[in-house]
Task: inverse folding
């Protein structure tokens, strides 16, 4: 008998999972409150940029609905809605709560309910279960299996990234593990409790945030000392143990690393603990967009540019290369900082985010520009920002927010290179 699955939330996490389950023989339907997204998916069109999603939908559209009642006819319900933070960095569980409230009347006994949304320790027992308990006659198997995706990664995908799972009961954990084993080509580790499962995702993302903050601070320090931080990191990475390279940049974006630490900070505060280390890391990483923009003044001083306004080609808006996801993107903050300056004029171009670009091509962005700011290291931008191109358009200096370009070659071509923790004077 074909097993039936409903995925609640057809975004960057839910939609690839739904398509993967379908490819493994599950009868899948999606539920999302975004009517336009549902229309695209049911027409076989990807609602966002993703090679796997595009390929799978081109083979056959996915059944999807804006009616929460579709969860009544399935064996498994996976909730994969976003868990953002508010403007003041407080956890915002509204998308999760509202999705659970909408499906609650339609849930059936003995269904497996898996929450994949990233949440801090305690949310399952203190927020999810009270909603489900509004129907005391309902008996569902509830688990938390925190999502793990890495958009744009050709090696690690929703199919093969190992997962962890923890249930409200031991039986739920067992049933949940069997479900994920049926769709993933990866191991699933059973945690001792649902709270441990919640803590895993928080730990792994705060680990990355802290290490990125560390190298960002070192980049600022090394810049003062005239030391190339990228070369130093690559040197340290030759040590075969006890070092894991992380790289500096113009900020941390995306829906995980830039968000999850705030969930743990607030949870700790509620428990009477002050996460000073996590907050410091957030403060450092949040300072990087402003730091990158401040390099303009150094470049102007070094090159003697007197143009008013300074024409800037601002390249990249998404938080990560080769995707169109702009959630929490530091490039957006950089753009806002530039727009507040009266001495610059900005032309924005991102080939993956044309709806927010102000020009239609890289050529248009570069024509007449004095300065280039690379805010996102899309491959097709990096490949075209050669020393010859910068010379052709008479670029005085370039700010490389991702340290993605050939600094030595650019400087040899007579263009000042300013990276994050690395500088090359024009030859």
Result:
């Amino acid at each position: 008998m074909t097993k039936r699955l409903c995925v609640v939330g057809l975004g960057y996490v839910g939609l690839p999972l739904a398509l993967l389950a379908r490819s493994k023989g599950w009868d899948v339907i999606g539920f999302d409150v975004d009517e336009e997204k549902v229309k695209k998916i049911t027409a076989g069109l990807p609602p966002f940029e993703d090679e796997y999603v595009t390929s799978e939908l081109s083979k056959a559209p996915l059944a999807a609905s804006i009616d929460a009642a579709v969860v009544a006819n399935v064996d498994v319900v996976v909730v994969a809605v976003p868990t953002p933070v508010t403007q003041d960095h407080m956890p915002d569980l509204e998308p999760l709560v509202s999705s659970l409230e909408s499906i609650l009347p339609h849930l059936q006994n003995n269904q497996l309910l898996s929450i994949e949304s990233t949440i801090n320790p305690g949310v399952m027992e203190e927020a999810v279960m009270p909603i489900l308990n509004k129907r005391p006659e309902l008996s569902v198997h509830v688990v938390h299996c925190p999502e793990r995706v890495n958009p744009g990664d050709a090696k690690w995908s929703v199919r093969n990234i190992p997962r962890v799972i923890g249930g409200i009961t031991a039986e739920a954990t067992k049933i949940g593990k069997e479900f994920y084993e049926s769709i993933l080509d990866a191991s699933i580790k059973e945690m001792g409790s649902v709270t441990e499962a919640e803590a895993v995702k928080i730990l792994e993302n705060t680990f990355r945030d802290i290490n990125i903050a560390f190298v960002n601070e070192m980049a600022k320090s090394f810049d003062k000392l005239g030391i190339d931080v990228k070369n130093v990191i690559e040197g340290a990475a030759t040590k075969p143990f006890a070092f894991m390279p992380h790289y500096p940049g113009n900020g941390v974006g995306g829906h995980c690393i830039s968000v999850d630490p705030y969930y743990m900070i607030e949870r700790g505060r509620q428990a009477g603990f002050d996460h000073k280390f996590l907050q410091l890391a957030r403060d450092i990483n949040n300072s990087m967009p402003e730091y990158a923009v401040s390099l303009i003044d150094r470049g102007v001083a070094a090159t003697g540019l007197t143009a008013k306004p300074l024409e800037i080609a601002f390249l990249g808006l998404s938080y990560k290369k080769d995707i169109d996801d702009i959630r929490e993107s530091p490039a957006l903050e950089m753009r806002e900082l530039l727009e507040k300056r009266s001495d610059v004029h900005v032309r924005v171009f991102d080939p993956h985010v044309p709806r927010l670009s102000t020009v239609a091509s890289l050529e248009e962005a570069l024509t007449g520009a004095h300065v280039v700011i690379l805010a996102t290291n899309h491959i097709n931008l990096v490949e075209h920002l050669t020393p010859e191109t910068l010379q052709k358009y008479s670029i005085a200096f370039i700010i490389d927010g991702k340290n993605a370009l050939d600094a030595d070659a650019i400087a040899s071509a007579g263009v000042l290179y300013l990276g994050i923790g690395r500088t090359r004077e024009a030859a």
Summary: The two ends are 71 Å apart (CA to CA).
